[in-house]
Amino acid sequence: MVEASSVEIRKVNKYYGQFHALKDIDLSIPPGKVTCLIGPSGSGKSSLLRCINFLEEYDSGEVLIDGQLIGYETPGGRRMAPRRLRQMRSTIGMVFQQFNLWPHMTAQENVAEGLIRVRGMRKRDAMERAAEALTRVGLSDRMGNHPSRLSGGQQQRVAIARAVAMDPRLMLFDEPTSALDPELVGEVLNVMKALAAGGMTMVVVTHEMGFAAHVADQIAFLEAGELVDVDVPSRILREPEDRRIQSFLRTYHERNLI
Amino acid sequence: MDLSIFSEYGPRLLSGFRLTIICWLLGTVFGAALGLLIAVAQRYGGRAVRWALQTYIELIRGTPFLVQLFLLYYGGPMIGLRLDPLPAGLLGLTIYGSPYFAEIFRSAFRAVPLGLIEAGRAIGMTEMAIVRRILLPVGLVSALPALINFSIILTKETVILSIITVPEVMYQTQYMATMTFTYLEGYFALALFFWVFVEVISRLGRRLERRITRHLIERT
């Protein structure tokens, strides 16, 4: 694996019209570590995640990948050239809540597509590499299937293979298990755990507190566009100081006692 | 009913059939290609481009095909555009169909989930590659029924080319009917031809549709 990236988020602000979605966010994401973003719906955690590969444009502040500003030429300056943005994105893998596999391609073609179009690999080599990536996520027997013939968990594993095959230095996960039936969540989390163990920098927006507790190196809690706290899981989850985190966890526990 | 005329005028009618099919095919292919170009340009073009194309769409959609054809064929020479009937007819069909095709493609593109496009962007694909590899193939699947539908409408618009003397099947039938006073036989045969023609297209279309959506409906 290529070396892992670090991400530095400084004073990032994001507006949707009048709505202030991200407020002066400062967050350091160390290389090779897993950072989980948690918080109630609408807190801005997905927006923040999407700012990291500039799928969402932040309005002010800086997002630095290995010290390199993404999205803009200079802080607050002109938009970065599309070519440079694409080049930076190609080293950042992203996994979506809705999988977003291309429905007209088989699992293997989904994984090979980026290798061919972005890395410029020949089709044969790309398909071979795709097969390896799919084998690593336990789908060697599903390579010829279209997404419509795969379960949600299998689709999400294909999506992870699609990102990982590009040799990313950083992986972004946007609620990767939220669209899955409960019994399929485990297989996806296991693949993610294996990635984390391999030393990948990961930023994960999640509602899976178990995953956050056991796999995360740090947890950032957001509410109403503010970064309330960042710390190791044991502190955030066991002895949160802020009342907003306490009340979030209380709701979470109540719901899971039933 | 006098059927002997068909042996005499058969070759004429046959060549008319052939030309009608050719006009329809080329009109559909060129019209769809132009429509596709318009839809892509509308999606990626700036404000001026979008406005110009929208105006074009409104203008063409808002005027009768026959009027457009007369403008092209009879009005064209006055601004130095001198076309034979067949090229004028094909150009006319292409222009006439393009805004409808453009609208079909535009709405099909809008139906492509944004997530599929974001997945392409996130991986570093160029917008061009995203159009070619994701937007078009996924959009085409949802556009197909509407595309076939409009191409069926176009089959029947081809008869208008007879008015500018393109010797397609309407023209030939008219010729035969006037020469022999066989209006009933002639136009009945013509109606039958179009009905069969459309039936063939719609069956082929359905088969094509089943084929390209196979991977989408195996599991629901």
TrEMBL record, chain A:
Keywords for this protein: Amino-acid transport, ATP-binding, Cell membrane, Membrane, Nucleotide-binding, Transport
Molecular function in Gene Ontology: ABC-type amino acid transporter activity; ATP binding; ATP hydrolysis activity
GO cellular component terms, A-Z: plasma membrane
Statement: the UniProt record of this protein carries the keyword Protein transport: no
Major localisation: membrane
Cell location: Cell membrane
Domain ABC transporter: 7-249
PROSITE patterns, per database record: ABC_TRANSPORTER_1 (PS00211), ABC_TRANSPORTER_2 (PS50893)
Database matches in InterPro entries: AAA+_ATPase, ABC_ATPase_HisP-typ, ABC_transporter-like_ATP-bd, ABC_transporter-like_CS, MetN_ABC_transporter-like, P-loop_NTPase
Membrane topology, as annotated: Peripheral membrane protein
Gene3D superfamilies on file: P-loop containing nucleotide triphosphate hydrolases (3.40.50.300)
Family: Belongs to the ABC transporter superfamily.
Protein name: Polar amino acid transport system ATP-binding protein
Provenance organism: Paracoccus alkenifer
Taxonomic placement: Bacteria, Pseudomonadati, Pseudomonadota, Alphaproteobacteria, Rhodobacterales
UniProtKB/TrEMBL annotation, chain B:
Transmembrane segments: 19-41, 53-74, 86-105, 134-155, 175-201
GO biological process terms on file: amino acid transport
One Pfam family hit: BPD_transp_1
GO cellular component annotations of the record: ATP-binding cassette (ABC) transporter complex
InterPro entries, per database record: AA_ABC_transptr_permease_3TM, ArtM/GltK/GlnP/TcyL/YhdX-like, MetI-like, MetI-like_sf
Keyword Membrane attached: yes
Membrane topology value: Multi-pass membrane protein
Keywords: Amino-acid transport, Cell membrane, Membrane, Transmembrane, Transmembrane helix, Transport
Domain ABC transmembrane type-1 residues, every copy: 13-205
UniProt GO MF annotations: transmembrane transporter activity
Similarity comment: Belongs to the binding-protein-dependent transport system permease family. HisMQ subfamily.
Name assigned to this protein: Polar amino acid transport system permease protein
Organism: Paracoccus alkenifer
